[in-house]
Amino acid sequence: MTTYLDFEKPIADLEGKIEELRRMSAQGEAISLEDEVSKLEHKAGLLLRDIYAKLTPWQKTQVARHPERPHFLDYVHALFQDFTALGGDRVFADDKAILGGLASFRGRSVMVIGHEKGNDTKSRLRHNFGMAMPDGYRKAVRLMTMAERFGMPVVTLVDTSGAYPGLSAEERGQGEAIARSTERCLTLGVPLVSVIIGEGGSGGAVALATADRVFMLEHSVYSVISPEGCSSILGRSKLGAPPSFSPQEAATAMKVTAQDLFQLRIIDSIIPEPVGGAQRGRSQVMEDAGDAIDLALTELESMPPEALRKARWDKYLAMGRVGLA
Q: Which of 115, 160, 220, 241 falls between 20 and 30 A from 177, CA-CA?
């Protein structure tokens, strides 16, 4: 069953009518309903295109979180061959919110790492909704180091609302683990390509996305904090009263969309999504992401380690730099 977001209600109504007419036709109604179905499908398609052409930043945030959007394992199964998962941080545990391992990608050996949110209640709980513990980031560091040792490029797929903020994570050094993972990204001597496939939340995302090339899907989001978190901090009001600064306003103010971040030169390119979002064209969007990754690796793999490191450092040091008059 298709999951519809709040702003997709008009589409849900039309597609519900289409399904109803199809059921009537299948039950052997005397009159032909094909013409009516075709008209409604055309109308629904136009409405879907119109709505998705004018999405607000908050609506894009909702699309980025859509439960039917493809996740890390979907991309692994679609784009990578012979994936061999590697687990454990060799310190405490094997975190299931960050997965990774060796794989073949279009003729080259790579290390692929990413957040996995899960696709049903059981798997979401198992993967902690993509919110990693320190063990996950230490595992990522271990896998990136292994990739460098064997001269393999690293591909990361980011999809998290942020690192797990609980007491148990803080007790085991969450901040230090995120910092070490970010540092490992910056010092890698092999190509590192990252794609924000859904949410890119806070340091939990940056720890895997400090890459040579950072791509975002058209309706993904990337920010220092969630719109809800920003709203709760900046819009605090009296107990029981709604915040004075709503999540909708926060999403706009924070410039969370791929379009905003490309304009600000935080990311390198935007990967288009099918009309209606990645959840309505899963195969196509994953193939397009694969093409972007392939092109980036082709450009980067001839660069020696020191050149890669210098270019990566220069890229991030230049962000936010303002020229003086």
A: 220
